[in-house]
């Protein structure tokens, strides 16, 4: 059991950076992930490596319309979203965090659900570039990273998740016990590594790319 990438062809590989937005990363943000903020230097180093190696870099932003018409069950799950206090398209909080290194020419995929594939043209853009391998990083590990990389696997992409360039926040007790951000992150990576994708560090990814 478990999946391993044997090689990485830069010309057929893309990195997707998931939802590195102010509403997740800024101190005091409604959906704050301090661990997400802490891993930005590792993420930025990986983004720059990909650029130099010829690997396409995509970014996503989870956003909803101000009138709430596209929130669906997110309005039930997340009070800050329902109240219009988080992830509202066009607001400063929905923009990518200022410390995240994105170039203007790198695609930014707006999405309204956890997966970057759901209701977007992300797959069309990947296929149009000849991409068959997708590497994911960003926030949160258990929701949008998890959903995106599982959708990629369902679509027969070869996949990887960068363990040190993903993060989440603490989960309160919803009747089944609380989990810290570190515990949620670790548990998600265990599940992904067993059933879905190659979980590897950013260093392992760069080594696999430069020394196939």
From TrEMBL:
SUPFAM superfamilies: Isochorismatase-like hydrolases (SSF52499). One of its GO terms (molecular function) is hydrolase activity. Residues 13-188 form the Isochorismatase-like domain. InterPro entries: Isochorismatase-like_dom, Isochorismatase-like_hydrls, Isochorismatase-like_sf. Keywords: Hydrolase. Transmembrane segments: none annotated. Signal peptide: none annotated. PANTHER family: PEROXYUREIDOACRYLATE/UREIDOACRYLATE AMIDOHYDROLASE-RELATED. This is Cysteine hydrolase family protein.
